Amino acid sequence: MAGNDLGSLLGGLLGGGNSGSGGGGAGNILGSLLGALGGGGKDGSNPLGGLMEMLQKSGLGDQAQSWIGTGDNQAVSGEQVAKALPDEALAQAAAQAGVTQQEAADTLAQALPQAVDKLTPEGQLPQAASLEDLIKQQGL
Predict the structure, then answer these.
(1) How far apart are CA 26 and CA 113, in angstroms?
(2) What is the pLDDT of residues 47-85, one digit of tens each?
(3) Reduced DSSP (H G I as helix, E B as strand, rest coil) percent helix, strand, coil of the chain, to 5
């Protein structure tokens, strides 16, 4: 299914380091979350845009902007991520990954800064029709 493909793409994106530990799991959770949030980009806008808007509205705007910008990425906690996301989206992502909601939130807190940073090398959210297109555009 497309969600598994998206999880594989994101897992590759996140697992590029030496350790590679958890890259696939984090990718699957992030892919499931973006799918639950409607990450299809139906209107042709960047599928990360809605997620970034949610984070900003929940008080995590400075952190989210640091991931997009070219400086250091600010950290967030699993608790902050859980509060920022709709409960049903986090529950769906956790269920699809076979983890608890808290484990999903903790994983997302670790994965989001790196994933967003890699998907925004120009310091801004690029336009793409889907997350798969966005990943391919960035050559990741």
Answers:
(1) 12
(2) 678 888 899 999 999 999 999 988 899 999 999 999 999
(3) 65, 0, 35
